Structure to design on (273 residues):
């Protein structure tokens, strides 16, 4: 039986992926940052760990336990992450560091620790949850855009360094998917952005906050979280997974636009989204 460690399983994509893989016969080690979420995952019959990806020791302990239990590790899915809204000029360096601590440095720590196992056993799969915003950038998402671009750079480099091995790295570029992502982004926006002391005050109040606070998901081409879970399942089934997977039509369309449009024209197009 193949096994996999998944980070960020408290809700949404991580949770749906854990349940989908378990239903299809994989041994899933589902992790979450908070004890209450770990307890909930246990009620669903999942093997669990408490992992805050910013905590190197929690990652090490989880991987050591997996190896003690199974003697191998087949895959990791780096799903943990969040979005920090706000114009780039309104982001403090500390807030940008916080974004990178989870989305990039935490992901990197899981990856490098897993790679030691994969190199020793001679095989493995690293699945990095990127985004359409690792391909194109949208305004007021600078911190998140930058974190996903960083993931793309690391993954693109690792693929070259893994050529000729049986270790594969795949990036998933997810577009609009139903999850708790927007709720968490609103909390970060309210906490870290000084709305009233910004050049963009009116746009924040009349557009960005309205969208973040809306209970409706009107994003074009929105898909359920299972759309990502099914891609992870496809990767697990594949002997030689693809280096990149686009999820949602929005990712396909915007990825195509990035390839063919002049930068100035693309900027004007993206600014309307």
């Amino acid at each position: 039986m193949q096994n996999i460690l998944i980070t960020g399983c408290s809700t949404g994509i991580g949770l749906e992926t854990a349940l989908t893989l378990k239903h299809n016969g994989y041994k899933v080690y589902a992790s979450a940052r908070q004890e209450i979420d770990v307890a909930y995952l246990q009620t669903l019959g999942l093997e669990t760990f408490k992992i805050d990806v910013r905590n190197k020791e929690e990652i090490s302990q989880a991987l050591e336990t997996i190896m003690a239990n199974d003697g191998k590790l087949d895959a990791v899915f780096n799903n943990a992450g969040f979005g920090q809204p706000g114009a780039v000029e309104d982001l403090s360096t500390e807030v940008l560091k916080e974004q990178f601590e989870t989305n990039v440095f935490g992901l990197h720590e899981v990856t490098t620790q897993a790679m030691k196992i994969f190199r020793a056993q001679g095989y493995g799969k690293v699945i990095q949850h990127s985004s359409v915003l690792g391909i194109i950038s949208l305004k007021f998402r600078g911190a998140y855009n930058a974190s996903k671009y960083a993931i793309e750079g690391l993954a693109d480099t690792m693929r070259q360094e893994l050529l000729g091995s049986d270790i594969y790295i795949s990036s998933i570029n997810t577009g609009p998917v139903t999850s708790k992502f927007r709720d968490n982004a609103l909390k970060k926006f309210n906490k870290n952005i000084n709305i009233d002391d910004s050049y963009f005050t009116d746009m924040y109040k009349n557009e960005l906050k309205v969208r973040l606070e809306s209970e409706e998901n009107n994003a074009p081409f929105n898909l359920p979280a299972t759309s990502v879970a099914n891609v992870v399942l496809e990767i697990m089934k594949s002997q030689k997974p693809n280096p990149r997977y686009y999820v949602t039509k929005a990712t396909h369309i915007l990825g195509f636009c990035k390839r063919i449009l002049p930068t100035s024209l693309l900027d004007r197009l993206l600014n309307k989204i």
The longest helix spans residues 93-121. The longest strand covers residues 167-174.
